[in-house]
Amino acid sequence: xxxxxxxxxxxxxxxxxxxxxxxxxxxxxxxxxxxxxxxxxxxxxxxxxxxxxxxxxxxxxxxxxxxxxxxxxxxxxxxxxxxxxxxxxxxxxxxxxxxxxxxxxxxxxxxxxxxxxxxxxxxxxxxxxxxxxxxxxxxxxxxxxxxxxxxxxxxxxxx
Length: 159
Prior knowledge:
The chain has helices at residues 21-30, 37-49, 93-108, 122-129; strands at residues 5-7, 12-15, 53-60, 63-73, 78-87, 110-118, 134-145, 148-158. By secondary structure, it is α+β, with helices and mostly antiparallel strands. It has one domain (5-158): Gcn5-related N-acetyltransferase (GNAT) (Aminopeptidase, 3-Layer(aba) Sandwich), CATH 3.40.630.30. The protein has an eight-stranded mixed beta sheet, with helices on both faces. The longest helix is centred in the middle third of the chain and has 16 residues, at 93-108. The chain is globular, with a radius of gyration of 16 Å. It starts with a strand and ends with a strand. It holds the Pfam family Acetyltransf_4. It comes from Clostridium cellulovorans (strain ATCC 35296 / DSM 3052 / OCM 3 / 743B). One of its GO terms (molecular function) is acyltransferase activity, transferring groups other than amino-acyl groups. InterPro entries: Acyl_CoA_acyltransferase, GNAT_dom. This is N-acetyltransferase domain-containing protein.
């Protein structure tokens, strides 16, 4: 578990605690994200029990505006993998993402950030590209839903 704490004039980022889960679940429902209580709790436990994992909430005036989950891999150079991140539709996603990446670069010497995006998520791909991410590789047919296959795009940003 990596403890994350960032305070900015516009937002506050804090690691998620068990007592935050009910608020996060309600926020996810408002965002129309499909995740059940059991799955959210399992993600929390994975983070809580793992050395390099992070799971944090982004707040603006006590309101949740986003969550991030991932891990830092400590090698000859450190890299972060973003498992998932969800922003409120009205938040300044780009500024927040850049602030988080800068925090990891300064505090954990992270030099590379990677995340996976389903190939049909054109809006998400454009957003990541506009913030310095490039396609590193594609896993063909990685996602299968109702008989339909979609590719997973691994996107990378060097920091």
